[in-house]
Structures
1.
Amino acid sequence: MRPTLFLQELDRWQSFFVRSKQDFQRAIGPLLKEKVFILGSAPGPIRPADFSADWSLVCVNASQKSCRALSLPQPDLLYIRGNIFSEKIEDVEARAAITNESAGRVLIQRPDNSRVDLAQKLAALPYVSSQFDALPRWVKDRAVLDAVGNFGRFLQVRNAITAGVAAVALCHCLGARQIVLGGYSFTVAGHAYSSSQVQRRNVRNDSLALRFMLDAGLALFTTGPEFAEESGLPVWTGSLQA
């Protein structure tokens, strides 16, 4: 009896755990560039002044809606939560925001126990990409634990961590050496692409995860002075350019 696609997918990701981070990188490849800008969905995102073709651009959920206003290119990677296909108002708005957009590749965070073809649903919006990969939650959890290093014992990784913070861990696993965040907030409600003022969720776990990543040695920055105060991340000045 042939294994289901679901089991085949789990087998594909198993290498990240039983061997090494390099196996994960080969499975999902290609790697990101060493300098990465992650664009979040909070209102008022700020682009790094020195952003160039030497960077990779990663968008989270529907943050891509801000790219044109910031003169940013098509993202190299879109990381998106699978429950974006719910009928909650914020999810309806997010789907509308990314309809007719595109990315180099897409990682879709699959909800627990879901066997829905998320890539097919995303492509039907339409959303265009040459590579769609559904990511089991336990892979995301392991990526976060890898990024926080020895601080993992203090983090309840099975508690919810938002896609914006999980994206940091995944970028670290995909070769990023300097990660700059824009469009992040723990206090400002709502999203740059919508009118609904949805409150921020999972702030405590998100703030702990980012602090632990920083303390574990990740070169992690933000373009937003307000978020720097909230999170403890340093403001990006471009001083660490390769």
Note: The domain at 5-231 is CATH 3.90.1480.10 (sialyltransferase cstii, chain A).
2.
Amino acid sequence: MATGRPVWSGHIRLSLVSLPVKLYTATESKAKLSFRQIHEPSGKPIRYEKTVPGVGAIDSDEIIKGFEIEKDEYVLLTQEEIDEMKIEAKKTLELVQFVDQTDIDPIYFDRPYYVVPDDELAEDAFRVVRDALRRQKKVGLGQIVMRGRSYIAALKPCSKGMLLETLRFEDELRRSDAYFAPISDQKSDDQLLNLAEELIERNSRPFDPSVFKDQYTAALRDLIQKKSKGKSTKVSADEGPDAGSNVVNLMDALKQSLNQGKPGSASKPKSAGASKAAAKTPSKAKAKSADAGKEAEPDKPAGSKSGTSRSRRSKAA
């Protein structure tokens, strides 16, 4: 049984087939922690007044919105003018195109919504559309209006139901050329490529999201719980990698990664001589690196700063 209120109710139409559905948000916002700013001496929350330089505090009914076209020059819009531009909420999502599931670059996906039939009478048509998309491995595309705005919608099967994902428009994305252009077209070394492929193959398994944990949020929740009960708030940091385990090149890194996965590789005993040699090598490398750093480091003038701070003027939303 669906929980919460649907964010959209209407019909999905495929040619002459129309099925009533409801959309529910598929993500959980309350999983994230939010904080209030507190005045430490009094323990009271901070509140902000809306002010104008030279005028002081103002009332909300004196505020309109402005779009900055040049520095300190704005096109002013009232809320009524903005509301008039909102698209009429059409309650129909018409599927106008179908593409392969792999055709849409993941960078376009924005927000996911669960799609469920509106009632039992709609289940037959819902099931047919869902199973047809699954069998053909296709995604249905159309445009949907929610909260006065138009979105590209991608519809696909999801377990016993369907998933609708809104897509970003093309002009919302940055072109990748500016970022990837400096990367050369040189082909990868075949031997290195084979080792990397073997490493990937060895570590391939079905996706299980429960394996990945939000350690930052979990640590924050634990800290909050301890402080609320007056317990110690000391947090132990995870141990980092051994400073002496740096690998000198990619080939060694790949080979060592593959050897780590072999049975008995971790428990293989080392000779005393080999252990001593391994222990000496990192310290020598560190000493050389330190000497090189001293020679390369230029003299810094007294009182120099690593950066400058700039204040930014708040702009109208």
Note: The chain has seven helices and 14 strands.
